Amino acid sequence: MEFDVVSLSRLQFAMTALYHFLFVPLTLGLSVIVAIMETVYVMTGRAIWRDMTKFWGTLFGINFVLGVATGITMEFQFGMNWSYYSHYVGDIFGAPLAIEGLMAFFLEATFVGLFFFGWDRMSKLGHLATAWAVAAGSNFSALWILIANGWMQNPVGASFNPATMRMEIDDFFEVIVNPVAQAKFVHTVSAGYVTAAIFVLGVSAWYMLKGRHIPLARRSMAVAASFGLLSSLSVVVLGDESGYLATEHQKMKLAAIEGMWETEPAPASFTAIGFPNQETRETQHVLQIPAALGLIATRSLNTEVPGIRDLVKSAEGRIRSGIQAYDALQAIRAARGVEAAGPAVREAFEANGRNLGYAYLLKRYVDDPRQATPEQIAQAAWDTVPQVAPLFWSFRLMVGLGIFFILLLGTFFYLASRHQLERRRWLLWVAVFAIPTPWIAAELGWVVAEFGRQPWIIEGVLPTAIAASSLGISDLLITLAGFVLFYSVLFIIEMGLMLQAIRKGPQFGHTTLPPRPAAPAAPLPGAVPAE
Q1: Beta 282-289 vs 456-458: how paired, if at all?
Q2: What is the pTM of this model?
Q3: Residue 335 is part of which domain span?
Q4: What is the mean pLDDT of residues 35-45?
Q5: Claim to verify: residue 279 and residue 389 sit in the same structural domain
Q6: Which of 192, 313, 326, 365 is the most buried (most CB within 10 A)?
Q7: Backbone angles phi and psi of 167, in degrees to 5
Q8: Are residues 228 and 335 in the same domain?
Q9: Residue 60: how many CA atoms within 13 Å on its side-chain side?
């Protein structure tokens, strides 16, 4: 990575986002699991389910507070580190962020207080409604954030206004129902559910190994296994949907994930293992699964999947079209208006305006894209190719972990249904050591989603290289170090609080396994039995 303002701004945002997402998936999943447990308590009236709700709710609360603390900083970074981006697309991007704050975050934060302090002040049904409101608020927060992120991946419902030099909303409803955003939302939320399920499963397995809080652990594992299994299966289904949408809207990302330099004829094969080489522009030692990519990417066996080389040729053509749009835009600005520029200029911009962002790729090499040489145009076209090897292996490791989650949760679901959770201690240890793995999978998913979009901050509209603020490298280095240090301290605090709460265990009722009564002593020879 080059040591410049753009790269450091990307690194700073990546670090804060990855730290923040250490807390988000557990918040999403635990909020629903806690609400499910309280629902069972209200339906059955059994105190142990109330104890379970309070115990896992405490862990949710710790995680929620840290998630809020790390999430607020990210939104400020759009204005601080990415000022041109905020200016260029603020009309669209700012709307879902504002709605998230007003509708979702306030809803969640308000009902979190009622959840923790309303146990003895509210009716059972009232408190249950509060628990589900907390879960709804958590998921609404994710919805609006992912609508904003999905628009960056597939910018629909908006267009560039040459009079204001900004992107403006044409149809806000189209922004909301953006298929990429909706698929990303359900996929991300399901991944959060899996994270929470494996967390509950692992902590409960640790209790069972230690012989503590067995009734709570047994029931918690049953809830986590059933809820997590359904969620892990939905992650696979929605991952398939994301692959299909990438074929429509982000062909280069899909080709990079596959390490597919040449167009794959129908039926396209999926590369299970390979070693992409960015310098030689080939993937070596390939092991393929016939027809699998065609089914995932096109849902057919008669459609080819374009490779990187052909997509680069297409990008070169779009760059040349973008240069014409840029030339027309300069004429519009010189004439101080679209109408004053004349019909010929207006027609030229309308015909090529959708490729204006590709002309901006040349800003890395020349101030005026109209002065670019053929060599610079060709180089800018190859800049549309992200780093292939990190994407290739991140995706495969994420998929491998997803398969592991299905097997693990399916096994514990089977054991829970047969009341055999305590018979295989080695499986309990597997559950304990599996606790960190969903976070690894989630972070890899974001690497694939965001790193695979490069060089675009908004796909096909605005390159990352011209979206950053004019900051000094020393400013970025100091703030980057500060963020890493501060977030590391927060992470250590959270880990300490969570481990302390887990070691302490539930303190609200009798959920530990009662001691077994001692076996009666054998009577002595000749002893007379007591009456």
Answers
A1: unpaired
A2: 0.86
A3: 309-382
A4: 92
A5: no
A6: 192
A7: -80, 140
A8: no
A9: 30
